[in-house]
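Lab notebook, bench 4. The sequencing result for the construct came back, and we need a structural model before the next group meeting so we can plan mutations. Quick request posted to the team channel:

Model the 3D structure of this chain.
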Amino acid sequence: MIRKLFLKLKNISVRRVILLLICLFFFSCAKDAVTGKKTYNWYGLNDDIKLGQQVIHQQLRALKKKKKAIDEEADPEMTRLIREITGKIAAISHFPNFPYETHYADLDIVNAWCAPGGKVMVYSGLFNPKEGLVTRSEKDELAAVLGHEIAHATARHVTESLSRNMSLAVIGQAAAIAVGTTGSGIVQDLFQKVISKGIDVFIPAYSRKSESEADQIGLFYMAKAGYNPKAAVDLWYRACKRRGDKTSLFASHPGSCERAKNLEKLLPQAMEEYQKLAH
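Done. Here's the predicted structure in token form:
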């Protein structure tokens, strides 16, 4: 629908364009199912899914081109664990029917992300004993990271940001790509594209507000999925004391101790959800 509207822009007056934008604004404003807030998003859920499919496809292609091990080839046990935790969190999320897809790549970058529509990528550097963030044997810590990243997808932070911040021309181009099948440049509109060790690596870029929302949503996701939410507080306190380069989770997720403190305030409520599963 959005694509058809933009195809008509060339043939209508500026006044009509303005009226169309006003209509789109009111049409696109709705109560978000995840956060409960009023949100402005020109995209539908199917658009989120298509955008995410393109992101994960391009990342996997870049990794394979550089002959980096992926999934079972990289580490069958870790791949199984990541998929197990993702599946449990996805099942209790606001969008359990997203076509979730989880990948593990042997890349020494301390990061993980979830593209729109539930496409999860975890880099092995996340578990690096010296520079990483997650203790390899701690399921709860990994659940804290995955819950946070999945929350970005269910809260639809990428398409919400595109809708809110981009110019009409860029939104029109991105919307056309989202509902079409072409457009290799869409990833640059979604994630930061950085070069690390000769590989195109995709790192999400979110506002502090979106990060805060994902913190809160992810905390309750992990608790409802059966993982101890205290691990999230401990993990983000650890993260707030560290810094990394532009490929690092420490850099792509603002390392403010305030975030950990905010999670700590929510911990009693999250623990109630977690403890329900023990009865």
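The longest helix spans residues 45-65.
Will bring this to the meeting.
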